[in-house]
Amino acid sequence: MGIIICIGLISVFAYVFAPDASKNANQMHLAIHSKSPGFEVQMLTIPSGILSEGSFISRLFFGYNNTDTEIPIQSYKLEKDVLYYVEYASDGLQGEEKQIAVSRFPNSNYESYIDTKSFVFGTDKYGRDYLSRILIGSRISFFIGFVAVFISLIVGLLMGSLAGYYGGKVDTVIMWIINVTWSIPTLLLVIAITLALGKGFWQVFIAVGLTMWVEVARVVRGQIISAKEMQYVTAARALGYNDYRIITKHILPNIFGPLIVISAANFAAAILIESGLSFLGIGAQPPMASWGAMIKDHYNYIILGKPYLALIPGVCIMLLVMAFMLVGNALRDALDVKS
Question: Which residues are in the ABC transmembrane type-1 domain (predicted)?
């Protein structure tokens, strides 16, 4: 639960914790691509003079458009109001020397625009800060669980309640739909829905949610078939309550235990499905950060001597999924009346 709360807070306030607070942490520096964790370099920032748009709240939760130019440099010197700098070059090479007028900087204060930048997790193959991408990428993996579970609960509760309470032909039709949906491999169904809705952020959320309602519906149906024979349901019918009130006010509150356990398991399943979709290239689209997409971009680095580029997002996915599974198991034990 502590891991879930921690990742939840990070996903909400990702741009507060991220060293690179630009939108999607997409500030590229190709000269310093694929650098090891802890890498440091001097960074020269050339101001564009364009003010970043957006309110404080917008920048807090969605980042800002960085219009300034950031250049990794090896050294610099000032001569007659002209700043000469040598661009960074790896493998012991000497970078190209360039110059810029000091007047380009506000009040000619160029020194405040040169600082040492540290990359805790190193950089990816595009030279972006990897720690910032990991932090911002937690948003998709975390929130897809909430959206998918919410959609699956709405559809699953509706279908399962109708099938379990009314039975007969209604139950037959709904169970036929459930069995057909159940027979289709989840990943293939998600891919089909994603291609129908289009590639994108919300399309993935909806697609994953629409494939996870079947298990909820089956459990709700089974629970309602047992509960509707209870004496309190018979008493509610004798008092003249309508079916909607009996289902929502009397039956569903008594069967929420199994639903909570299923929801925790569905959280973990949704995270894995989204990661698989992003790995296949039909999940969240670039430049949006996603743990699955980060593994896809860097899995070949496992054999190129820099496995951490793929292992870091992989470990993050493993921790989050394991946390939800452990919470689900604990809830199952706590809500099990027999134990």
Answer: 138-328
Burial (CB count <10 Å: 0-12, 13-18, 19+), residue 113: middle
CA–CA dist 177, 123 (Å, integer)? 48
Asked whether 284 and 299 are in contact (CB, 8 A), the reply is no
Helix 201-210 vs helix 256-280: angle between axes, to the nearest 10 degrees?
A: 130
Using the structure block, give the residue that is written with the tokens 């720690």: 131
Query: Would residue 117 be called left, alpha or beta, if left means φ above 0 and alpha means ψ between -120 and 50 degrees?
Result: beta
Domains of the chain, residue spans: 39-119, 131-335
CA angle (24 as vertex; 65, 87 as ends), nearest 5: 70
Of 183, 190, 192, 191, the residue nearest 208 (C-alpha): 190
**pLDDT, tens digit (0-9, with 9 covering 90-100), for 136-189:** 999 988 888 888 889 999 999 999 999 999 989 999 999 999 999 888 887 788
Token pair of 136 as six digits: 């911002």
- The Cα–Cα gap between 283 and 201 comes to 7
Tell me the CA end-to-end span of the chain in Å, nearest whole number.
Answer: 22
CA–CA dist 169, 163 (Å, integer):
9
Total Cβ atoms within 10 A of residue 293: 26
